[in-house]
Amino acid sequence: MKVAIISPLIESVPPKLYGGTERVVSYLCEELVRQGHDVTLFASGDSVTRARLRPMVERSLRLDERCHDPNSHHIIMVDRVIEAASEFDVLHFHLDYCHFPLVRRLGLPSVTTMHGRLDLKEYIRVYSYFRDVPLVSISDAQRAPIPDNNWVATIHHGLPRDLYPFHAQPGSYLAFIGRISPEKRPDRAIAIARRAKMPLKIAAKVDAVDRSYFEARIRPLLSGADVEFIGEISDVQKRDFIGNARAVLFPIDWPEPFGLVMIESMACGTPVIAWRCGSVPEIMVDGETGRVVESEDEAVDAVERIHELDRHRCRDVFDERFTVERMARDYVEAYAQRAEGSDRRLRVA
Hints:
Blueprint: E1 2-6, H1 20-34, E2 38-44, E3 52-57, H2 70-83, E4 90-93, H3 100-106, E5 110-113, H4 121-129, E6 135-137, E7 151-154, E8 174-179, H5 186-195, E9 200-205, H6 211-218, E10 227-229, H7 235-243, E11 247-250, H8 260-268, E12 272-275, H9 280-283, E13 290-293, H10 296-304, H11 311-321, H12 324-341, H13 344-348
Parallel strand pairs: 1-2, 1-4, 2-3, 4-5, 5-6, 6-7, 8-9, 8-11, 9-10, 11-12, 12-13
């Protein structure tokens, strides 16, 4: 198939450091190419891919100090994608909703993967207005705020099998990885580790919007020797950081749409202690890939009993459910449905 994949321009594909959406876009692009599809990636110019790259900006906007309005770049990109639409069997967007008016009016064969939360008032309003635009959810739980939209598939994320090596032997610390923000609850992770008398290592990005939260709520908790704040790390660094952990703490306090950390940990063989929020019960296998908990007391107990879980089984579940090969096959099926059902006369026009 001839597929156009349209990525956000905030990060490169793949991202240099943090960036869940762009990381998944990269894995999907490379696997589709490997499976023999003709893939064109619309992304920032510093992206690296075996697909055909059409650079929309010189470099990722987060790293470009000259960028003051990311929306302007995305609007131009959408117009350029629409202009080239007749070259492709399907357009696969990862841009939230800015392209919805055009793909609906022109009847273009498209799918849009929703990567974020959908429960905010403004999101519910705009997605309900464009309820006929074909969407892919990354978990069934993600659909809850707008269940009546045109959901064509739920496709769980997948990772390359060799991206994270299996670690049979656990280390002596707990890990928290991702982003410092109120909904990720790093404060809860620190409390759990201290009650369980286990060292905690935190590898996390601090966005500008979360800087005041970090300074006021989290930095004061980092004074003890039992908590080490490492900062943002790369994919290569994550392999040992996650793999050598006794367990990964995922104490979220929001409707998480997926949670790459959980399957990255499974790939390493590291169990996850995760709060029962959003996609967690859908992605986790309680008692096999970790523990799904609902309180700090339950989390502390799970840490103390984490040795009961089989790290080999964590990896087995990853191989069974969360590989990039499976993800790409699922998307190809969704692409074929959209290409066959589209009005090609409108597409050419």
